[in-house]
Amino acid sequence: MPYIKVPEDVLLARLAGRWTCRKCGAMYHQLYSPPQQAGVCDRCGGELYQRSDDTPETQQHRIQVYFEQTAPLIDYYRKKGLLVEVDGRFGIDEIQPSCWASCRVMITLKSEHELVLMREAAGSSPRCWLRFRRQWLLA
Ligand SMILES: [Zn+2]
To answer: I need a labelling partner for 74 at 20 to 30 A (CA). Which of 2, 37, 47, 115 fits?
Structure first.
């Protein structure tokens, strides 16, 4: 089971930089995927805004709830020797090999049917790990 571990301050910085297009809903990040022109959507020219629930307080609370709910699971998998910690301070390209490696450990424990579902869920997108994490770490 891959566990992408990110320090809380890094998580906060990532969450705080999110911008959404008012018109088409496209998402941007001021550090990782900034729009060509600040405040303007590349796709449709719409105005970018920060969601009201993206305030530092809300995010802090969201992170806290996440850790509270996930911590028992992390312990459970760690005790079974199935947890592989991946350093999430790095970008998705850097951590992907470790994620795949830990996923291979997981795959050996899955049935054929589950493997098909996993492959479909991952697709060929480099962002597949976001989905993997949602489905299998939080499941
Ligand atoms: Zn847009």
So the answer is: 115
How do residues 12-53 score in pLDDT, each as one tens digit?
A: 777 778 899 999 999 998 888 899 999 999 999 999 998 776
Residues in the chain: 139
pTM over 0.70: no
Name the DSSP class of 46: P
Which residues place a Cβ less than 5 A from the ion ligand 1?
21, 23-24, 26, 41, 43-44, 46
Which of 85, 136, 84, 95 shows the shortest CA–CA distance to 115? Answer: 136
Residues with Cβ < 8 Å from 35, sequence gap 6 or more? 19, 28, 41, 42, 48
Q: How far is the CA of 103 from the centre of ligand 1 (A)?
A: 35
